[in-house]
Amino acid sequence: MPLFQYVCEECEQTSELLIRGEEKPACPYCGSERVTRQVGAFAAMSAGSKGETPSGGCCGPSCGCMSN
User: Fold this and answer.
1) Count of structural domains within the chain
2) Is residue 56 one of the residues assigned to a domain?
3) Taking CA atoms, which of 1, 23, 50, 56 is between 20 and 30 Å from 16?
């Protein structure tokens, strides 16, 4: 079941909602059904120097990651 980010057109609150099938989402703050799904941001990762992730974490056999 996908988790989507929505913004309420009534109270302008942003929330993440788990939507099942054709279910119509409602704002958890004010109950309005006038919510708009937001375009999600995609995460992109590239290997840094010495096999580290961009955040500085390990990405090698020493920490359980498998590298190509």
Assistant:
1) 1
2) no
3) 56
- Residue 57 forms part of a structural domain: no
Q: Are 62 and 40 in contact (CB under 8 A)?
A: no
At 34, the pLDDT band (50, 70, 90 cuts) reads very high
Question: Would you say residue 52 has pLDDT above 60?
Answer: no
AA identity, residue 64: G
- For 10-25, write each residue's pLDDT tens digit: 999 999 988 888 888 9
